[in-house]
C-alpha cells in the first residue's frame, strides 16, 4: 500500500467513532463498520435514516475502481460517522 498522499492521513482510532476504524480497507468492511455505528444511535428513526443514507452512498459509489479514490471515500465516511456519533452524544 502506498503512503498517504498530500492532504491525506492514516485513520487513527482516536478520531473514529468505534474501535478498529484503522482496519477498514475495503468497501464491504466500511459498510459493516458504518452499520455498527448506526446501532449505537439513540432512536430507531435516526438509525433508519443513516442506514438508508449508507445504502444510497454505496449504490452511488459501487462502480468506483480507483484504489486511491476508494481509500479517500473510506477516510471521509469514517470522519462523517465520527461527526454524526458526536452530534448525538452531545444531545443526550
Q: How large is the share of residues in beta strands? A: under 5%
Q: What fraction, in percent, of the residue positions are helical?
A: 55-70%
User: Count of helices?
Assistant: 3
Major beta sheet summary: none
What is the molecular shape? Answer: globular
Give the termini distance in whole angstroms: 40 Å
**Extended strand count:** 0
Write down the overall mean pLDDT: 83
Model regions low in confidence, pLDDT < 50 over at least 5 residues: 1-15
Rg over CA atoms: 13 Å
Pairing-aware structural class of the strands and helices? mainly alpha
Write the layout of secondary structure elements.
Layout: H1 27-39, H2 44-60, H3 67-91
Helix pairs in contact: 1-2, 1-3
Write a structural description.
There is one protein chain. With 92 residues, this protein is mainly alpha-helical. Helices cover 60% and strands 0% of the residues. It contains 3 helices and no strands. The longest helix is centred in the last third of the chain and has 25 residues. It is globular. The N terminus is likely disordered.
Provide a brief overview of the structure:
This protein has helices spanning 27-39, 44-60, 67-91. By secondary structure, the protein is mostly helical.
Offer a few descriptive terms.
disordered N terminus, about 90 residues, mainly alpha
Amino acid at each position: 500500500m502506498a503512503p498517504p498522499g498530500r492532504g491525506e492521513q492514516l485513520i487513527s482510532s482516536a478520531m473514529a467513532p468505534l474501535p478498529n476504524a484503522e482496519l477498514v480497507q475495503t468497501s464491504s468492511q466500511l459498510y459493516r463498520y458504518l452499520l455498527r455505528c448506526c446501532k449505537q444511535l439513540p432512536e430507531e428513526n435516526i438509525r433508519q435514516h443513516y442506514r438508508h443514507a449508507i445504502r444510497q452512498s454505496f449504490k452511488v459509489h459501487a462502480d468506483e475502481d480507483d484504489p486511491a479514490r476508494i481509500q479517500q471515500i473510506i477516510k471521509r465516511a469514517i470522519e462523517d460517522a465520527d461527526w454524526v456519533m458526536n452530534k448525538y452524544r452531545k444531545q443526550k
